[in-house]
Amino acid sequence: MNNTLTLKRLVCEHCGAELSGLSDCITFQCETCYRYFIITPEGLKDIAVYTAICEEQYKEQLLQLPFWVIEIDRALLRKEIEGSLSELRNHKGTIAKTKLEKDPEDESDFFSSNLHTGMEKLNIIASQRLIPGSREIEYLISTIESFKSFFIYIPAFISKNPFAYLKVGKLLTGKQPAFKIEKSTLPGKPVMCALQQDEAVELIDFVFFATLPPSILKCGDFLNPISLKVSGTPRLVLFPFQKRENSFFSIIGEFSISHRLVDVIM
Ligand SMILES: [Zn+2]
Fold first, then answer.
1. Burial zone of 197 (CB within 10 Å; 0-12 exposed, 13-18 middle, 19+ buried)
2. What stretches of 53-160 adopt beta strand conformation (E)?
3. What H or E segment, with its residue span, contains residue 114?
4. Domain segments of the chain: what residues?
5. Ligand 1 centroid to 15 CA: how many Å?
6. pLDDT (tens digit, 9 = 90+) per residue, 45-56?
7. How far is the CA of 37 from the centre of ligand 1 (A)?
């Protein structure tokens, strides 16, 4: 195996200017031509960065936090939800048909046969799986299908707090806010992105499940086989946040997160 380590200067592939960035960040903006680049395991790649447009004017400068915005395939999700449900219902049907009668071949006395039946019942109770209510599932599917597209939001900014990913991603995903985006081409700060696209895609199930009500979440056997499939190309989008006393207020979706969830380089 050839284990050579190659050190390369980070140079803009477009204009040749040297790229400088912030430590911990994997994205760079060329200071000369304002194009964006991301470091991937395969090397430096150019990347389109989008900004969510803020309709109102704010006096102060807003904090721009990057998220991977990932559209999911809703038809496949519906299929998986229905498949998992019918699988569980079939299993329940099998249990209902299981007879708890004494085996006629069994010559054991009354006590041990009762014990046998008792154990069998216990085993059946243990194998009972929780099935979410059909109304709840219908509501979930119709909610997801009521939007033009359904996106999962994965925070891409630097945070020492893993709950930040769950919390902020869950809030934006749960709200499915409507907003416009535009391609960022203006000079500015480098994007504070610390998460690769592939890593973000691996987190979509996790964030989506976090948005579900507890009554569905407790049905682990129902959720286990469900996994979201990506539709289209994930986009790196900057979302405007307003710094408040002890929190950051998301202008898109209108919610606050604790300032402790974000390690900000300002
Ligand atoms: Zn350049």
1. buried
2. 63-71, 151-155
3. helix 110-126
4. 9-47, 49-74+149-261, 77-134
5. 4
6. 999 999 999 888
7. 10
- 233 in Cβ contact with 48 (< 8 Å): no
Q: Pairing between strand 181-183 and 151-155?
A: unpaired
**Position 113 confidence tier, pLDDT thresholds 50, 70, 90:** low
Q: How many residues in total does the chain contain?
A: 266
Q: Which residues lie at CB < 5 A from ion ligand 1?
A: 12, 14-15, 17, 30, 32-33
Cα 14 to averaged position of ligand 1 atoms, centre (Å): 5
Question: In this predicted model, what pLDDT tens digit does every residue of 223-259 receive, in sequence order?
Answer: 999 999 999 999 999 999 999 988 889 999 999 988 8
How many whole angstroms from 39 Cα to the centroid of ligand 1? 15
- The rounded Å distance from CA 30 to ligand 1 centre is 5
What value does the CA radius of gyration of the chain take, rounded to a whole number of Å?
A: 26
Residue with tokens 């499940």: 209
Could you read off the pLDDT of 140-173 as tens digits, one per residue? 999 999 999 999 999 998 877 777 778 899 999 9
Taking the alpha carbons at both ends of the chain, their separation in whole angstroms is 43
The rounded Cα 96 to chain-centroid distance in angstroms is 37
CB 257 within 8 Å of CB 65: no
Q: Which of 72, 75, 51, 85 is nearest to 211 (CA)?
A: 72
Locate 29 and state its tokens: 């903006």
> What is the pTM assigned to this prediction?
0.83
Q: Please tell me the distance between residue 227's alpha carbon and the centre of ligand 1 in angstroms.
A: 39
